[in-house]
Protein backbone atom coordinates (compact mmCIF):
# COMPACT_ATOMS: atom_id res chain seq x y z
CA UNK A 1 0.00 0.00 0.00
CA UNK A 2 1.33 3.45 -0.90
CA UNK A 3 2.14 5.76 1.96
CA UNK A 4 0.50 9.16 2.34
CA UNK A 5 2.69 12.26 2.37
CA UNK A 6 1.97 15.93 2.93
CA UNK A 7 1.30 17.43 -0.55
CA UNK A 8 2.99 20.72 0.38
CA UNK A 9 6.11 19.13 1.85
CA UNK A 10 6.52 16.91 -1.21
CA UNK A 11 6.51 19.97 -3.51
CA UNK A 12 8.97 22.13 -1.57
CA UNK A 13 11.68 23.47 -3.88
CA UNK A 14 9.67 22.24 -6.89
CA UNK A 15 6.93 24.88 -7.08
CA UNK A 16 6.65 25.97 -3.44
CA UNK A 17 8.97 27.24 -0.77
CA UNK A 18 9.01 27.30 3.03
CA UNK A 19 6.95 29.67 5.19
CA UNK A 20 10.09 30.38 7.27
CA UNK A 21 12.58 32.01 4.91
CA UNK A 22 15.91 32.57 6.61
CA UNK A 23 19.33 31.09 7.24
CA UNK A 24 21.15 30.91 10.56
CA UNK A 25 24.28 29.58 12.20
CA UNK A 26 23.98 26.15 13.77
CA UNK A 27 24.11 27.54 17.32
CA UNK A 28 21.23 29.97 16.63
CA UNK A 29 19.05 27.75 14.47
CA UNK A 30 17.10 26.05 17.27
CA UNK A 31 16.31 29.32 19.07
CA UNK A 32 15.08 31.01 15.89
CA UNK A 33 12.95 28.00 14.93
CA UNK A 34 11.36 28.02 18.38
CA UNK A 35 10.64 31.76 17.96
CA UNK A 36 8.86 31.01 14.67
CA UNK A 37 6.73 28.25 16.20
CA UNK A 38 5.72 30.38 19.18
CA UNK A 39 4.86 33.42 17.03
CA UNK A 40 2.75 31.33 14.64
CA UNK A 41 0.91 29.63 17.50
CA UNK A 42 0.22 32.96 19.18
CA UNK A 43 -1.03 34.62 15.98
CA UNK A 44 -3.42 31.76 15.19
CA UNK A 45 -4.84 31.86 18.72
CA UNK A 46 -4.98 35.66 19.09
CA UNK A 47 -6.46 36.27 15.61
CA UNK A 48 -8.85 33.33 15.50
CA UNK A 49 -11.70 35.53 14.17
CA UNK A 50 -9.55 37.02 11.40
CA UNK A 51 -9.34 33.90 9.23
CA UNK A 52 -5.54 33.59 9.24
CA UNK A 53 -4.34 31.22 6.51
CA UNK A 54 -0.56 31.31 6.88
CA UNK A 55 2.22 33.30 8.54
CA UNK A 56 5.42 33.90 6.58
CA UNK A 57 8.51 34.83 8.59
CA UNK A 58 11.62 36.33 7.01
CA UNK A 59 14.77 37.40 8.82
CA UNK A 60 16.90 40.03 7.07
CA UNK A 61 19.97 41.24 8.97
CA UNK A 62 18.96 41.69 12.66
CA UNK A 63 15.30 42.09 11.68
CA UNK A 64 12.19 39.91 11.71
CA UNK A 65 9.55 40.47 9.03
CA UNK A 66 6.21 38.75 9.75
CA UNK A 67 3.59 38.62 6.97
CA UNK A 68 0.09 37.48 7.93
CA UNK A 69 -2.22 36.25 5.16
CA UNK A 70 -5.80 36.75 6.34
CA UNK A 71 -9.31 36.80 4.92
CA UNK A 72 -10.41 39.64 7.24
CA UNK A 73 -7.55 42.14 7.58
CA UNK A 74 -9.82 44.71 9.26
CA UNK A 75 -10.14 42.46 12.30
CA UNK A 76 -6.35 42.46 12.77
CA UNK A 77 -5.76 46.12 11.91
CA UNK A 78 -8.61 47.46 14.04
CA UNK A 79 -9.91 51.01 14.23
CA UNK A 80 -7.21 53.45 13.06
CA UNK A 81 -4.61 50.67 13.31
CA UNK A 82 -4.95 50.30 17.08
CA UNK A 83 -5.21 46.50 17.11
CA UNK A 84 -2.24 45.91 14.81
CA UNK A 85 -0.04 48.05 17.08
CA UNK A 86 -1.14 45.96 20.06
CA UNK A 87 -0.35 42.77 18.13
CA UNK A 88 3.08 44.11 17.14
CA UNK A 89 3.94 44.86 20.78
CA UNK A 90 2.85 41.36 21.84
CA UNK A 91 4.93 39.72 19.10
CA UNK A 92 7.98 41.79 20.05
CA UNK A 93 8.11 39.81 23.31
CA UNK A 94 8.90 36.63 21.32
CA UNK A 95 12.03 37.92 19.56
CA UNK A 96 15.04 40.14 20.19
CA UNK A 97 15.11 41.28 16.54
CA UNK A 98 13.48 44.43 15.19
CA UNK A 99 9.95 43.37 14.23
CA UNK A 100 8.09 44.44 11.07
CA UNK A 101 4.48 43.32 10.65
CA UNK A 102 2.70 43.12 7.28
CA UNK A 103 -0.92 42.16 6.53
CA UNK A 104 -1.95 40.57 3.21
CA UNK A 105 -5.62 40.13 2.34
CA UNK A 106 -6.86 36.85 0.85
CA UNK A 107 -9.32 37.87 -1.84
CA UNK A 108 -10.73 34.36 -2.41
CA UNK A 109 -10.96 32.57 0.95
CA UNK A 110 -13.16 29.90 -0.69
CA UNK A 111 -10.04 28.66 -2.52
CA UNK A 112 -7.75 28.58 0.51
CA UNK A 113 -7.48 25.06 1.95
CA UNK A 114 -6.77 26.26 5.50
CA UNK A 115 -9.81 28.54 5.59
CA UNK A 116 -12.07 25.94 3.95
CA UNK A 117 -11.04 23.32 6.54
CA UNK A 118 -11.63 25.77 9.39
CA UNK A 119 -15.05 26.71 7.98
CA UNK A 120 -16.15 23.07 7.71
CA UNK A 121 -14.88 22.34 11.25
CA UNK A 122 -16.70 25.38 12.69
CA UNK A 123 -19.95 24.33 11.01
CA UNK A 124 -19.65 20.83 12.45
CA UNK A 125 -19.06 22.33 15.92
CA UNK A 126 -22.35 24.22 15.46
CA UNK A 127 -24.03 20.85 14.78
CA UNK A 128 -24.45 21.40 11.03
CA UNK A 129 -24.59 18.10 9.11
CA UNK A 130 -21.07 17.11 8.05
CA UNK A 131 -22.28 16.20 4.55
CA UNK A 132 -23.89 19.60 4.12
CA UNK A 133 -20.76 21.38 5.36
CA UNK A 134 -18.53 19.34 3.02
CA UNK A 135 -20.67 19.93 -0.07
CA UNK A 136 -21.00 23.64 0.70
CA UNK A 137 -17.22 24.02 0.90
CA UNK A 138 -16.71 22.04 -2.32
CA UNK A 139 -19.34 24.00 -4.25
CA UNK A 140 -17.96 27.36 -3.12
CA UNK A 141 -14.40 26.42 -4.15
CA UNK A 142 -15.46 25.19 -7.59
CA UNK A 143 -17.58 28.29 -8.12
CA UNK A 144 -14.57 30.52 -7.42
CA UNK A 145 -12.43 28.78 -10.04
CA UNK A 146 -10.79 25.75 -8.40
CA UNK A 147 -10.06 22.93 -10.86
CA UNK A 148 -10.68 20.29 -8.20
CA UNK A 149 -11.20 19.81 -4.48
CA UNK A 150 -11.30 16.87 -2.10
CA UNK A 151 -12.55 16.95 1.50
CA UNK A 152 -12.01 14.17 4.06
CA UNK A 153 -13.72 14.02 7.45
CA UNK A 154 -12.87 11.31 9.99
CA UNK A 155 -14.20 10.54 13.47
CA UNK A 156 -17.52 9.85 15.15
CA UNK A 157 -19.54 11.37 12.34
CA UNK A 158 -23.06 12.25 13.38
CA UNK A 159 -22.41 10.85 16.85
CA UNK A 160 -21.92 7.29 15.57
CA UNK A 161 -20.57 4.67 17.97
CA UNK A 162 -17.81 3.61 15.56
CA UNK A 163 -15.53 6.19 13.97
CA UNK A 164 -15.31 6.21 10.19
CA UNK A 165 -13.98 8.27 7.30
CA UNK A 166 -16.03 9.90 4.57
CA UNK A 167 -14.84 12.02 1.66
CA UNK A 168 -16.26 14.09 -1.16
CA UNK A 169 -14.47 15.15 -4.33
CA UNK A 170 -15.28 17.28 -7.33
CA UNK A 171 -13.04 17.94 -10.32
CA UNK A 172 -9.54 16.44 -10.41
CA UNK A 173 -6.94 16.42 -7.63
CA UNK A 174 -3.72 14.89 -9.08
CA UNK A 175 -1.68 14.14 -5.94
CA UNK A 176 1.06 12.25 -7.86
CA UNK A 177 1.75 15.16 -10.23
CA UNK A 178 4.56 17.28 -8.81
CA UNK A 179 3.85 20.20 -11.14
CA UNK A 180 0.29 20.43 -9.79
CA UNK A 181 -0.41 23.49 -7.63
CA UNK A 182 -2.18 21.83 -4.70
CA UNK A 183 -3.10 23.58 -1.49
CA UNK A 184 -3.56 21.30 1.55
CA UNK A 185 -4.64 21.88 5.13
CA UNK A 186 -5.87 19.97 8.17
CA UNK A 187 -8.10 21.16 11.01
CA UNK A 188 -9.88 19.54 13.95
CA UNK A 189 -13.51 20.04 14.96
CA UNK A 190 -14.13 19.75 18.72
CA UNK A 191 -17.64 18.27 18.82
CA UNK A 192 -19.66 16.88 21.71
CA UNK A 193 -18.85 13.34 20.52
CA UNK A 194 -15.12 13.88 20.21
CA UNK A 195 -12.58 15.27 17.77
CA UNK A 196 -13.34 15.06 14.06
CA UNK A 197 -10.44 15.61 11.65
CA UNK A 198 -11.01 17.64 8.48
CA UNK A 199 -8.56 17.50 5.55
CA UNK A 200 -8.85 19.61 2.40
CA UNK A 201 -6.95 19.40 -0.90
CA UNK A 202 -7.55 22.11 -3.55
CA UNK A 203 -6.13 21.84 -7.09
CA UNK A 204 -5.57 25.26 -8.67
CA UNK A 205 -3.77 24.37 -11.90
CA UNK A 206 -0.31 23.33 -13.05
CA UNK A 207 3.02 25.11 -12.67
CA UNK A 208 5.25 23.91 -15.47
CA UNK A 209 8.42 25.83 -14.64
CA UNK A 210 10.74 24.55 -11.90
CA UNK A 211 10.59 27.58 -9.59
CA UNK A 212 10.12 27.46 -5.80
CA UNK A 213 8.67 31.01 -5.93
CA UNK A 214 6.08 30.10 -8.60
CA UNK A 215 3.29 29.41 -6.08
CA UNK A 216 3.77 32.78 -4.34
CA UNK A 217 3.86 34.59 -7.69
CA UNK A 218 0.60 32.95 -8.86
CA UNK A 219 -0.99 33.84 -5.52
CA UNK A 220 0.05 37.49 -5.87
CA UNK A 221 -1.28 37.66 -9.44
CA UNK A 222 -4.60 36.15 -8.33
CA UNK A 223 -4.83 38.72 -5.51
CA UNK A 224 -4.42 41.53 -8.04
CA UNK A 225 -7.17 40.10 -10.21
CA UNK A 226 -4.85 38.95 -13.00
CA UNK A 227 -5.11 35.53 -14.61
CA UNK A 228 -2.15 33.41 -13.41
CA UNK A 229 0.30 32.75 -16.21
CA UNK A 230 0.19 29.24 -17.67
CA UNK A 231 3.52 28.63 -19.43
CA UNK A 232 3.34 26.69 -22.66
CA UNK A 233 4.46 23.08 -22.67
CA UNK A 234 7.28 22.52 -25.13
CA UNK A 235 6.56 20.01 -27.86
CA UNK A 236 8.91 17.11 -28.24
UniProtKB/TrEMBL annotation:
Source domain of life: Bacteria
CDD domains for the chain: KH-II_30S_S3
Boundaries of every KH type-2 domain copy: 39-107
Assigned keywords, A-Z: Ribonucleoprotein, Ribosomal protein, RNA-binding, rRNA-binding
UniProt GO molecular function: mRNA binding; rRNA binding; structural constituent of ribosome
Keyword rRNA-binding: yes
Gene Ontology CC annotation, any one: cytosolic small ribosomal subunit
One Gene Ontology biological process: translation
PROSITE patterns to which the protein is assigned, alphabetical: KH_TYPE_2 (PS50823), RIBOSOMAL_S3 (PS00548)
Record region (Disordered): 213-236
Biased composition (Basic and acidic residues): 213-222
rRNA-binding as UniProt keyword: yes
Quaternary context: Part of the 30S ribosomal subunit. Forms a tight complex with proteins S10 and S14.
Family: Belongs to the universal ribosomal protein uS3 family.
Job of this protein: Binds the lower part of the 30S subunit head. Binds mRNA in the 70S ribosome, positioning it for translation.
Protein name in the entry: Small ribosomal subunit protein uS3
Amino acid sequence: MGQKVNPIGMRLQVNRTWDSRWFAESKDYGDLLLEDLRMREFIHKDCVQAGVSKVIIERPHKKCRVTIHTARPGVIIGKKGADIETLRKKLTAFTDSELHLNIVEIRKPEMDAKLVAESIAQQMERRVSFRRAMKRGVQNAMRMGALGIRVNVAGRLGGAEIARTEWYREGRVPLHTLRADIDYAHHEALTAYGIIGVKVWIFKGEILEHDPQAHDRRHAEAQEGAVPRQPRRERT
